[in-house]
Amino acid sequence: MDWGMENRLAQIIKPDGKCFFLPIDHGYFQGPTSCLEKPQETIKPLLQYADALFVTRGVLRSAIDPAKTKPVILRVSGGTSMVGESLENEMLTTSIEEILRLNVTAVGLSVFIGTKYEKQTLKNLTDLVNMCENYGIPVMAVTAVGRELEKRDARYLALCCRIAAELGARVVKTYWCEDFDKVTRGCPVPIVMAGGPKCKTEIDVFNFVHDGIEKGAIGINLGRNVWQHQYPVAMMRALHAVVHKKATPEDANDLFNEIKSKSEPQECK
Hints:
The structure is a single chain. By secondary structure, the protein is of the alpha/beta class. It has a single domain, classed as TIM Barrel, CATH 3.20.20.70. The chain starts with a helix and ends in a 9-residue tail after the last helix. α9 (202-214) runs parallel beside α11 (232-244) and α9 runs antiparallel to α12. The longest helix is centred in the middle third of the chain and has 16 residues, at 118-133. It has an 8-stranded parallel barrel, surrounded by 6 helices. It has a two-stranded antiparallel ribbon with strand order 4-5. The protein has helices spanning 3-12, 27-30, 39-43, 57-63, 96-101, 118-133, 154-166, 181-185, 202-214, 224-227, 232-244, 249-260, and strands at 19-23, 52-55, 72-75, 77-78, 91-92, 106-111, 139-143, 171-175, 191-194, 219-221. Helices cover 40% and strands 15% of the residues.
């Protein structure tokens, strides 16, 4: 592996081999998402516990202090919205010149396997890999499912992750599922877990994160389960303990409740 690629991967994956990415890119298709209306305020108390930010170029420029940030994974796919016909009809939104100009550590895009736009989004991935490999920039493929949440089973996600790795992704972001080891076993590159919709209880989040790491994931890319929570710092710190300190779900829940007891709840509209 070239030094530049290895160096950038080392910035987002810590020496223990684990990572906690904080995604705040939801606005690229959802608009002003609840609790993320002002991204700079949302991330301020959370940033110290994150290993990298997953963000669009617009928010990066307008809301992220270049002197006080973490490594950046730049979202470079888009072109659709929640009110449009199809979330899967994405394109590449950012040139390699822009990626270099922003000095980001890695880039990420979504692929929608099994949809009408499968070939198009996989072509986006191959085009991005072809561009970024020349400059030592890692590509993270996001195995998105659009609105079809029932697709989140091990057989489907294993297929998606392997295809993304085969096409050159250096990291794959996917959903946790039952029998998650079937997903990680078949993927030759590191897998990070997405959070998906908000979970009903904190222990539900800690359980799936712990299970996924035990079964081969290197970390998480969780947003809404953190910054839409009434106690986002408590959630962030508890999840950080699961990822980087090998905390059990019960340990994480105890830590969450301890920090919660000393915190004021946030209110999101």
